[in-house]
Amino acid sequence: MNRSQPLHHLIVGDGVTALALVAAIPLASGDRLTIVGRTAHAFGRGAAYAADPNETPWQFAYLLNSPADDIDPDFADWAAENFDRIRAQMEGRSPNWLGAAQDLVAKGDFAGLNYPRSTFGDYLEAQGKSALAALKDKGVDVAVLSDEALSVTRNGAYLDVALASGRVLSADRVDVAPGAPTTQRIEGDDSAFSVPTLFGYEEVVAEHVRAGREIFCVGTNATMLDSLRLCQSLAAETDISFVACSPSGRLPAALIPQLPRRSFTPQPNTGHTTAASFLSDLQEQIQAAENDGLAIREVRAGMRAFFVENSITDFVAAPEEALKVPAKLRHWLRAGTRDSIHDFERLSQTGQTRLLSGAVEKIESHDNGAVVHYRDAEGNAQRHETGLVINCSGSVMTAGHDPLTQNMIDRGILEVSRAGYVVGDRCETAWPNLRHLSPATAKIGAEILPMPLFDAHLLRVWAARCYG
């Protein structure tokens, strides 16, 4: 690295994306690295895998959405090496994760387990400590600040980032590495009998679960499944009353690993002029794979690996058509936690869990509960009386960004589309020394991302390309 002066590199973020960037950034002895985030003291965990300082019944109930080797092969190896400690930590907990894991453990398939999020957080924090220690050994001056970045301005060749504490940090380069935007809001979702999201509102939800009230989730996604596990951690299953509502009225497919592992490599034709033609080509190959005994887990993994090496625009040249592919592809590959989906299906047989098909329009709170207003599959207005409503609907790109990202959007530094964030070839924004990478990034340069960057190894791939 031929530089006459040391540089100061600032990373705003403290989770999986920030950890991937730390591994990729070229820093030399004498350089400075500053990391800013609300949970930066446990760098690597971020908000999604943050440790609760006071242990709660649900702390170890939340599970990763995918098997370990789908999320990060390195994590799968770490979990297998540390399984005795994990087993001891999970002994006697409800829901019975060890019981659900028994068949895979007996086969030695530790990589196929959906581990608790807290376990993945332990791994990420250990990786974070190791990465920062390696930089310090290299002679890099590392500072970690538990703070929140609010805005960025230009100061000559430098960037000044203002923090919530009142401090202003000046850096040569800044990488912004936030999580996804927050859950889209629904009218009436923050009242005595409704909460706008699960995370951060667990104590409120717990109070209603313990009182034996029905829990109504808007959405049938991973957050809904976490909500069910919170209920299971607090109440006997016979005392649970749980409803989930979404337009499809269906659960995600369960990600079930097979031994031996089988692979799927799509081989689509090039030269498609429309998204519909390309998607039809992929659909035929997915159907053939399923007919050959492959399940959603193998199909998803194969698609993800394929599009790491190949671009959608290699097959659909017209950008406006290529942009239509990701939404459909993500819908086809929608899947979730094996343990939680199987529990939901099992509990539905005794009436403890139910699915509704409908689009929720608003929530009204009354003296002793809530009323959910929704449109059923035929478009008819319906109402459902319940105990507590949890908004588990997905994120929306028009609101709910972290303060710094919102500041960048408002000032035209960062582009955002309905699909997600749009950045340059190396994740650059309108300012070349200011980069942005997130699980919600939809387009990098000419590359249209087919799936969200939620898995650690995918984030590492793109972080490396930012600085490769």
Automatic annotation (TrEMBL):
<dbReference type="InterPro" id="IPR036188">
    <property type="entry name" value="FAD/NAD-bd_sf"/>
</dbReference>
<protein>
    <recommendedName>
        <fullName>FAD-dependent urate hydroxylase HpyO/Asp monooxygenase CreE-like FAD/NAD(P)-binding domain-containing protein</fullName>
    </recommendedName>
</protein>
<dbReference type="InterPro" id="IPR038732">
    <property type="entry name" value="HpyO/CreE_NAD-binding"/>
</dbReference>
<dbReference type="Pfam" id="PF13454">
    <property type="entry name" value="NAD_binding_9"/>
</dbReference>
<dbReference type="InterPro" id="IPR052189">
    <property type="entry name" value="L-asp_N-monooxygenase_NS-form"/>
</dbReference>
<feature type="domain" description="FAD-dependent urate hydroxylase HpyO/Asp monooxygenase CreE-like FAD/NAD(P)-binding">
    <location>
        <begin position="11"/>
        <end position="179"/>
    </location>
</feature>
